[in-house]
Specification:
Length: 347
C-alpha cells in the first residue's frame, strides 16, 4: 500500500518512546518464512508453493477473507516449540520497536479444534514470555481469547480446559478476550461466560466496533463489563456512547494498518483515530495481526503520525495511553511513564 516516505528521525524518536502493545494476536504474527519452516518441521501441507505466494494471497476484502487465511496458516503450529518460536519472533520485533510491555491474545480454540492440547499452547507461549522477560527486558501478559463465531458452550469448555493451568501461569495469564468474525456475533452471546470470568477475577477485554456497529461497543461495556475495547472505531457513530467512553476513560486499542488492510477505512488519512484522540478518548495504537497487515507496532505509529498529521505531543499521549491502559501494576506504569517523559524530551 502506498505510504508517504518515512522520516527516519521521526521513526527513531518514536522507537525510543517506551510503549506497550495491548491488541496483538500471536497467531497473527506468523510470518510466511516461519509458516514454511514450521510446515516443513511438522510435515503439514500448505496450499502455497512459496513464501511469495503466501504474501500474494494477503489481499483481503474484509475481516472474513483474512480470517480464512489466518486459520489455514495456524495449522502449522503443532508443538510447544512451535508456539515458543512464534512468540519469540514477535517479542524480538516488539523489543526492536521500543515496546516495553505486551499483552498478547491467543485463541486456544484455533488449536484445540485440530487436536492440539491447550497445555501445549500455554507452555510454548509462556516459555517465550519468560525468556523475553529475562533476556530482552520486555514484560508480557496473556489474554485467552474466545472465538466469537463459535458457541458460548464452546467458550465455557475452553475456559474449563484452561483453568487447571491457571496457577502454573499466574504471572502471565491475567485476562480474557473475544475475537474473530464480529458481524452477527454480538457480545451478548458471551454474557454468561464473561460473568463467570469476572467472578474468577480475570481482566476483561473484547473486540467491538471494528466491522460491527457502535451498539456492540455498548454491549461489550454494559453486558460483558470489559475494561478495554479492542478496536472500537465505530464508537464515533454514537455520540452518547463516545462521551461515556471518554468520561470513563475506557481505552480503545486501535489498529490503524489493520483497519486499512481490511477495508474498515479506505485511506489512512480518513481514519478517525486522531478525531477520537482529540475528542479526549483514551486511544492506543496497536498492530493486531502484523504478519498479515503489513506492519508492526512502530509501523502503525509512523504511518498514523504521517497520515493524520499527529503532533509529537499527541504521539507521546498515545504512548502514555498504552502504558496507562495496560494491566501492569501501578508502580511499573509510573516507572515507564517517567522514562517516557525523559525519552519524549530528546530529539
Ligand atoms: Zn484483533
Amino acid at each position: 500500500m502506498p505510504q508517504a516516505p518515512c522520516d527516519p528521525a521521526l521513526r527513531e524518536w518514536l522507537r525510543a518512546l517506551p510503549k506497550a502493545e495491548l491488541h496483538l494476536h500471536i497467531e497473527g504474527t506468523l510470518e510466511p518464512e516461519l509458516m514454511f519452516e514450521l510446515a516443513g518441521r511438522n510435515k503439514v501441507p500448505l496450499p502455497y508453493a512459496s513464501v511469495d505466494a503466501v504474501r500474494a494471497a494477503y489481499r483481503f476484502t474484509d475481516l472474513q477473507s483474512f480470517l480464512d487465511l489466518y486459520y489455514a496458516g495456524a495449522s502449522v503450529l503443532v508443538t510447544e516449540q512451535d508456539f515458543h518460536d512464534l512468540a519469540m519472533a514477535y517479542l524480538r520485533r516488539a523489543r526492536d520497536d521500543g515496546l516495553v510491555h505486551v499483552e498478547i491474545m491467543f485463541d486456544p480454540q484455533t488449536h484445540t479444534h485440530r487436536g492440539i492440547a491447550i497445555g501445549t499452547v500455554f507452555a510454548g507461549l509462556a516459555s517465550a514470555l519468560r525468556e523475553a522477560r529475562d533476556t530482552l527486558g520486555i514484560s508480557g501478559r496473556l489474554l485467552l481469547s474466545f472465538l466469537r463465531h463459535l458457541s458460548e458452550e464452546d467458550a465455557f469448555a475452553t475456559l474449563d480446559a484452561a483453568l487447571p493451568l491457571r496457577e502454573a501461569y499466574a504471572d502471565l495469564w491475567v485476562g480474557i478476550g473475544l475475537d474473530s468474525s464480529e458481524k452477527g456475533n454480538p457480545p451478548e452471546k458471551f454474557a454468561r461466560v464473561y460473568a463467570r470470568c469476572a467472578e474468577l477475577g480475570f481482566r476483561l477485554v473484547a473486540h467491538a466496533g471494528e466491522e460491527g456497529p457502535a451498539a456492540y461497543v455498548r454491549e461489550a461495556l454494559e453486558t460483558l463489563k470489559v475494561a478495554r475495547i479492542d478496536h472500537g472505531v465505530r464508537s464515533s457513530d454514537d455520540p452518547a456512547l463516545l462521551q461515556t467512553l471518554i468520561q470513563r476513560r475506557i481505552p480503545l486499542t486501535v489498529c490503524p494498518l489493520s483497519n486499512l488492510k481490511l477495508g474498515v477505512v479506505r485511506d489512512l488519512s480518513e481514519h478517525n483515530l486522531a478525531r477520537l484522540l482529540r475528542a479526549g478518548a483514551m486511544v492506543t495504537i496497536n498492530a493486531d495481526d502484523p504478519a498479515y497487515f503489513g506492519g508492526y507496532a512502530l509501523d502503525n505509529y509512523v504511518a498514523s503520525a504521517q497520515a493524520l498529521d499527529l503532533s509529537r505531543d499527541e504521539l507521546v499521549t498515545l504512548a502514555a495511553n498504552s502504558l496507562q491502559a495496560s494491566f501492569l501494576p501501578a508502580a511499573d506504569k509510573t516507572r515507564w511513564l517517567d522514562q517516557l517523559a525523559v525519552a519524549a524530551s530528546r530529539g
